From TrEMBL, chains A, B:
ATP binds at residues 6-9, 172-173, 178, 183. Catalyzes the phosphorylation of the beta-carboxyl group of aspartic acid with ATP to yield 4-phospho-L-aspartate, which is involved in the branched biosynthetic pathway leading to the biosynthesis of amino acids threonine, isoleucine and methionine. One of its GO terms (biological process) is threonine biosynthetic process. Keywords: Amino-acid biosynthesis, ATP-binding, Diaminopimelate biosynthesis, Kinase, Lysine biosynthesis, Nucleotide-binding, Transferase. Belongs to the aspartokinase family. Pathway: Amino-acid biosynthesis; L-lysine biosynthesis via DAP pathway; (S)-tetrahydrodipicolinate from L-aspartate: step 1/4; Amino-acid biosynthesis; L-threonine biosynthesis; L-threonine from L-aspartate: step 1/5; Amino-acid biosynthesis; L-methionine biosynthesis via de novo pathway; L-homoserine from L-aspartate: step 1/3. This is Aspartokinase. It catalyses: L-aspartate + ATP = 4-phospho-L-aspartate + ADP. Substrate binds at residues 46, 73.
Length: 404, 404
């Protein structure tokens, strides 16, 4: 099998961890697999380099910052090659120039465009483990670029797609994808399988094991992803297109506490009102989430929506600045709210899933402030203080306690 | 003017020093010069990286070691670009791939073969300062290589040659090239000019401001070198082909304490004896210096020569191992000896220079053990304990105390 593996910065943070990863690679190599391994910079090295840059120049050029940061992964792959050599496994490290990983021009947040696979294929044919720097690329000016948040995951998935790999394993510090955050929901279970779409909904809801970009790319190119722990041999979670027929209705419960609600009250009941309101917010890069429109008094209407709590002040200031064009009577804001969601591909063909969630919340006395649904997701806005109670109740409803 | 400047690791060791260098570059930039600046890795970074490698693998692959080490200069050039930006000077950093600097294949000790100058010329035309990583290149496999000791000086001289630069300035922690080591000879004076050949003799004798490879390359391509301090604005020493007519006979006095003498006594007086002896030593990479052959007793002959004191044990072991083929009566070795040399292009056309040196040594009671001469150099082997006295005496003979 041709397997692409990706290890994050924590997994290669020091000598001992480097050898832990090297031993894992050596095991698979000795089974006869062809291995391409993507590594991040060691531990906090990227943060350290950013701090060095800011110390010199508080607002460093993004081009030069990428030139600086790309050294981090190069150190990781070179040291890993040396560690594999100690274990008797032939390996070769390659940076973005050597692969080459072609990206768009944007420094600091480039997109991968094309990957040359000749060099990697040659090295694999020579029975070498190929170690590739994650997070980085080269643009048309022959300059280094970086891929932004979750960049190394994206590198791994893109390599798996370009090489038509049999599998792309993403190693993290957890055993896989869980039905809910185990720190909040005591009965949370590790999922064996999940679809790309479910994973995308969960990632955007703050489950945060994989970055959306890498999941989107895996879905687009049909790359079979496996999320598993670098600390143990457990099987992890497979992320793929279709899952078993006997699949659960709901694959996960997620919460997002970074939320606030804004109600714009007493808007004129005319076409274009909603457009004006959200146009102004979009121009300030404020992402709006659940939107609810209702009839108000005296022929007016009200629009409520949620934003990230971090964006609340700017959202309010933006709306007030455009009061004359938007035309409303007053604003009502609410902090201390949170979103709780259930996600599951099974919902599409099953009525009553939302109702089952609402029932679970009613049973424990949680009041629902707003509701939003997609084909594979139901989200409710509730009081932040009730998140834990709500998540456990909803989770237990869909995942009846298993025999242990 | 198009000027190539090279700053070593100490000159960019921390934020303050980086800005010192940046201010120097900014001054020359504002005078309208075109600037290409070669930087080494910060401070002891190369040593730190080597230690990291050895900690993982006591005998790391040279290919992977180069992959690791080349990150050092990349950090330096990126940070310098950020510092210049703070000073309002547009700059761009380039690594060996981006330039590109083509070298031979040998990892750890590659030779520069060819430098592409298109990218650098384009950036200079856009009025940018071009910051280039020293010490590194790319070989035909598209792998990083490093240039070995003195590598960044070589990078600078090679760039000056390829770009037909008007000058190549090598910044160090001393004011330039001195007539003798100021720590030993109190009347040592800074030279304003020196020829390539004199510089080569001085460098090989341990004056050590510039590595021989860079001086040889400067001579070959007629690059005008300037050695000057990064700490002050003093003019430094110009290294070039011909110097002023009124030039001094002798440009410098140098000493090398890393010497030992071996006498091979009682060799057969036949052809091929010297060949056999030095052939065995050469096969063990032992460099032999002053060689003296004399008639011994009973129709035999003796050959004396000096080696580096570090190589003494291996040289003796090598000779003893081949005793049967070399055929000699006994070995006599002497440690605690040193070479003192005078160097000067003026010697060639001036008889009596060597005699003047011997006179100076006689005046202070220094016994000469061996003598070796080239067209521009006279070297004597003396007792190590007398080096200081000898150097001062010889120096004062050729550089009568100046009015201060």
């Amino acid at each position: 099998m041709l397997i692409v593996k990706k290890f994050g910065g924590t997994s290669v943070g020091d000598k001992e961890r480097i050898f832990n990863v090297a031993r894992r690679i050596a095991e698979d190599y000795k089974k006869g697999h062809e291995l391409v391994v993507v590594l991040s910079a060691m531990g906090k090295q990227t943060d350290i380099l950013i701090q060095m840059a800011k110390d010199i120049n508080p607002n460093p050029s993004k081009r030069e910052l990428d030139m600086l940061l790309t050294t981090g992964e190069q150190v990781s792959v070179a040291l890993m090659a040396m560690a594999l050599d100690v274990l008797g496994v032939p390996a070769i490290s390659l940076n973005a120039f050597q692969v080459a990983m072609h990206t768009t021009s944007v420094y600091g947040n480039a997109r991968l465009k094309r990957i040359d696979t000749d060099r990697i294929r040659n090295e694999l044919q020579n029975r070498r483990v190929v170690l590739v720097t994650g997070f980085q690329g080269v643009n048309k000016f022959e300059d280094y670029t970086t891929l932004g948040r979750g960049g190394s995951d994206t590198t791994a998935v893109a390599l798996a797609a370009a090489l038509h790999a049999d599998m792309c394993e993403i190693y993290t510090d957890v055993d896989g994808v869980y039905s809910a955050d185990p720190r909040i929901v005591k009965n949370a279970i590790k999922l064996n399988e999940i679809t790309y779409d479910e994973m995308l909904e969960l990632a955007s809801l703050g489950a945060g094991v994989l970055h959306n970009r890498s999941v989107e790319m895996a879905k687009k190119y049909g790359v079979q992803l496996v999320v598993r722990s670098s600390m143990n041999e457990n099987e992890g979670t497979i992320v793929k297109e279709a899952v078993n027929m006997e699949k659960m209705l709901v694959s996960g419960v997620a919460a997002d506490k970074n939320a606030a609600r804004i109600a714009v009250i007493g808007l004129e009941d005319q076409p274009g009102v909603a457009f004006k309101l959200f146009h102004h917010l979009a121009r300030h890069n404020i992402n709006v989430d659940i939107i609810l429109q209702s009839i108000g008094r005296d022929g007016t209407k009200d629009i409520s929506f949620t934003v990230k709590e971090d964006d609340l002040d700017e959202a309010v200031a933006t709306i007030e600045r455009h009061r004359e064009s938007i035309k409303y009577q007053k604003l009502d804001i609410e902090k201390g709210v949170a979103k709780v969601s259930i996600v599951g591909a099974g919902m599409m063909s099953n009525a009553g899933v939302a109702a089952k969630m609402f029932e679970a919340l009613y049973d424990v006395g949680v009041n629902i402030k707003m509701i939003s649904t997609s084909e594979i997701r139901v989200t409710v806005l509730i009081d932040e203080s009730q998140v834990e109670k709500a998540m456990n109740a909803v989770h237990d409803k869909f995942f009846p306690t298993q025999m242990n």
